[in-house]
Write a structure and sequence with these properties.
This protein has 21 helices and 24 strands. The longest helix has 20 residues, at 112-131. It folds into three domains: 8-325, Aldolase class I (TIM Barrel, Alpha-Beta Barrel); 354-445 and 601-644, NAD(P)-binding Rossmann-like Domain (Rossmann fold); 448-598, FAD/NAD(P)-binding domain (3-Layer(bba) Sandwich). By secondary structure, the protein is of the alpha/beta class. The structure holds flavin-adenine dinucleotide, NADP nicotinamide-adenine-dinucleotide phosphate and iron/sulfur cluster.
Length: 645
Amino acid sequence: MGSMHTGLEESKNGFEKQAAYFAERAKGGVGLIVTGGVAPNRAGWTSPFGGKLSTKSEAKQHKIITDAVHAEGGKICMQILHTGRYGYHPLAVAPSAIKSPISPFKPWKLSKGGIESTIKDFASCAKLAQEAGYDGVEIMGSEGYLINQFIVSKTNKRTDEWGGAYLNRIKFPIEIVRRTRETVGKNFIIIYRLSMLDLVDDGSTWEEVVHLAKEIEKAGATIINTGIGWHEARVPTIATMVPRGGFSWVTKRMMGQLSIPLITTNRINMPDVANRIIADGHADMISMARPFLADPEFPIKALQGRTDEINTCIGCNQACLDHVFARKTASCLVNPRACNELTINITQAQPKKKIAVVGAGPAGLSCAVTLAQRGHYVHLFEAHGEIGGQFNIAKEIPGKEEFTETLRYYSKQLELHKVEVHLNTHFDEAMVKDFGEIVVAAGVTGRKMNIEGENHPKVLTYTDVVLHKKPVGKTVAIVGAGGIGFDVAEFLTHSGANTVEHFMAEWGVDMEYKKGGALMKTQGNPSPREVYLLQRSKGKLGEGLGKTTGWIHRSALKMKKVKMLNEVTYQKIDDKGLHILVQGKPQVLDVENIVVCAGQVSNNQLYTKLKEKSARVHLIGGALEAGDLDAKRAIEQGVKLGIEL
Ligand code: FAD
Ligand code: NAP
Ligand code: SF4
């Protein structure tokens, strides 16, 4: 299990919470866990008072984690992470005083003495980790953190023995590994996370990466893990549009160069992907991180051939990375229990009731399954012929194919927990009397624009376009630039299969690694349509998209030459097209189609009617509140109501 900062590290009773979180993953069969990054000193903090291990009393607290993992038969390494210039605090240090584009703090340049003491701090941090019962450490040498900053000339402008030529710049990581090995002795795992693909200008060349790997092996590492891309890189490396296992080719280049095992990472989310990577000789070991947030029992299910029961990570980042970047505790969109192991628990219900859940979208599905896991007799009603609600639209968007896995997971859970599913059944007031409790999860419907010409044949809804595949012309205006407007723009401008080669070319990653950083000119397929994306408000389009994925959506549409207009007033639609004012100036967009993505309204009429007849009616998901709705909120509300009733 790869390293992930979850925010539990800094929370109240954080060690107890982490112990429960990691122990559950060990119990689920994870072979080797790596913790989130822990700083070897204050300068290495992620943010003020972040996780640090530099004293014996701090080591004692870590014992709570290691004991819990060992009690479940697991093994655990602690990651030592010095953030360098990525530190979000005024004490940050770096080889040179160059500010990073992703932190407001300019780092202090480390003195020669500072470099010496930082190396010592790494080694003594590892020793303390050993005393705390960890089975090893992972030294974080990638993703653009301090060690990486020493290696690459763009961030290391030193003229002393720690800068200049490549052989000088790599002395820092080599010394850290060498002295760590010296300090911890032979029988302690040292994983070194090596940046094999920097994806920044002036990054290491492939020859340099191989040279460093060999030196790190000589210095005493047990295993080398693959790091892909600095945090400031402008290439998606883990988001859902990255093809599964899309970066294992990088590790494969290193295979055969070393005698210690190599781990590969990034967007490996199902057992067949992992098996294929190993079988194809791309790596010796597989690291997954987010998939274990999504399902702590992933390994056991895989071992027992219960792959269809795995709750698959869909790569959305919405509840994990986006939370961490917003300084909130991580969880998981498809598994709200992740990082809440001490508070969200499925216990057997008493008494067991007959419960109706209306609507099989994400909210209704999560609620029905949770209720059934607790022993209730659950009937799930869905007006359409399949479960999924709006996820059936989302899964059609190129790059969001993973959403299909969530529906496969729920479908299997409904079967396992014997939920009676009534498809093509519109639930109404007449059906109330049979049930002890009723959960209304009737979801949302697309909002209308309320302007002249709204019923013109040019006008389509996002459901018409994405789900019903109604024909769309060569010129299109999309009204509304929220998550769905962006997705529809992607749908309309996409062409070509999402293969690894296509993805790399589109984002300018040179698989032949001709120069350092492996970047080249982007080479995407041109859009089959001319698309306008419009919003009424001021400001950048897509401002409300996910923190860690919004830039990807914006860049992707820019590459497709989508014209983004803000401060738009919609006036009317007629044969000429869409009449608008842009910052007060009239304009007619002569388009063949207008696709309305103007937000949603709640389907709450059923609830209002039922509430008059029965007090035992509950409302969740989009039916409760359409504003700012997403599947994270819908699934979480379903689970939370499910453990209460
Ligand atoms: P819905 O999904 O609307 O489900 C409600 C269900 O209730 C429907 O199946 C409906 O048929 C059924 N129903 C209604 N009335 C009755 C009745 N009387 N009897 C029986 N059945 C009834 N969210 C994210 O978090 N991340 C994303 O990346 C994302 N991408 C999206 C992309 C697209 C293109 C779309 C359209 C949506 C996307 N969403 C995304 C939003 C997400 O799908 C919704 O937030 C979520 O589906 C809401 O869940 P829900 O269960 O409340 O409602
Ligand atoms: P949304 O994000 O609320 O966006 C609605 C858009 O419609 C906005 O651009 C809004 O901007 C515009 N609008 C609102 N009222 C309008 C009106 N009367 N006439 C014309 N335009 C109007 O909603 P959404 O795009 O429908 O998405 C629904 C939810 O699904 C979102 O909240 C989102 O979280 C989730 N989702 C997430 C993702 C993701 O990648 N994370 C992807 C898809 C969906 P103006 O008011 O400025 O015009
Ligand atoms: Fe995966 Fe999304 Fe869960 Fe993060 S929130 S672990 S990306 S499914």
